Glycerol dehydrogenase (Mediterraneibacter gnavus), 382 residues
Amino acid sequence: MIYGVSDKMSRNTNYRAWGSVGHYLQGPGLLEEIESYTSGFGTKHFYIIDVFFFDTWTQKLAEIYENSKSTFQSAVFEGEVTRSKIREFQEQAVGSDIDTVIAIGGGKSIDVAKVIAANQECSLVVCPTIASTDAPTSAMSILYSEEGKMNEIMLHKKNPDLVLVDSKMIANAPVRFLVAGIGDALSTYFEGLSNVQTQHENYVWCDKKPFVSTLSGRAVAKECFDTLMADGIQAKLACERHILVPALENIIESNILMSGLGFENVGCSVAHAIGNAITVLPEGERMMHGERVGFGVVCQMIAEHYNQEMIDQVLSFCVDVGLPVCFHDLQIEPSEGNLHLIARESLEAVSWQACSRTYGEEDIVQIMRMADALGCSYLSKK
């Protein structure tokens, strides 16, 4: 299974489920206080740190733990989340008698940490350094082949025990990461509606039995959309200037917490099916996940025949925050061959089953062409 987690998707289930991170903390400078927030989980901490932050934070952690009753060791993450990479970290963890795994970095280092914590049956703390995806709060990891192709979704028994977000770090990161997270979060509401309307199962313990979303999950997905519309543009401007204001704090929360709870508890649909499939092209791999999914949202609105007013609202928002709305933005040549490759790849996604009708390869090609046409038309009027 490439983009889904179950071959037994169900309709009209009587069961509903909610999954959630244990605790969520957000604010400027929180990472400097990491030891005080993690000491309650144990005293032997194993840090998996993104290569970009490894040297700086290994040194800082040595200072933070100098007078602590807890001890730490750190390992650098670089590359893709592959089976072989997981084995490397697992060997380090097994020989270290750890009780807490702590990730500092982006989605890939976080996904590895989730697997190690699950294998060791120990506590997991996640510290995202960018707000580019909604991965930090979920109970799943995305695995890739050695060639860098997404090929597996691994489900875990529980969500992270703590997600700690240092908003100052995110405000100081390149704005493209925040914008990509906005694209990923934008899909949460629209994909959620698809799943609600068809009573399609969510991602909470779906290997046990099919559960649909709770009312709480749906409410979070809607609040995520409302927050993006209210604060997205101001947050982008603030992040460009590394200014931490309430609007940016709100968007950090929407990108990480609301979107994370939303997608896991309500489900994915067309936007992710097409967004993920774009990576079948080498050009698509250069785009960030949320940038591709943002274009997938426009495709989803075409597939589900949203009214033009709503489509214009989303296009206007995407253009203003800098999300792709056409193939030119994605740096992809919309040839018949390329579009059919994307469409064929997207049909591997179980999330198409969240739709109220069945789509074939040619249908998806036409949907993408219409989305591209609307995006180009909107840009020509700006």
In short: Confidence is low (pLDDT under 50) at residues 1-10. The chain has two domains: 21-170, 174-378. The first strand starts at residue 16 and ends at 17.
